Amino acid sequence: MPPKANNQEGSSRNRFRNRVLAIVAQISKGATLTYGEVAKRAGKPQAARAVGSILHTNFDPAIPCHRVVRADGTLGGYNRGSREKKRLLLAEGVKIGSLPKHVV
Question: Catalytic residues, which ones?
């Protein structure tokens, strides 16, 4: 049986993952958040890369991962490919040159 600390750590990771997915699920069509902003809202402002890792493994279409972008205004990764991310954002009316747009 693993030590309790590992269970607590795993539980903490799951809670963070769930918070990230809940935050991303609330991003309105046509809006974006940065990975860092999602991390901040999820309670771990230094965890932008962890947010990216969480979103990379999410394939639930109810979670609009394509609406999360990099702080430098570039699109960042997407588990269905960067072309698809760009296509989806443009279809939603996001002006790619004006990213990020912090509106939920």
Answer: 65
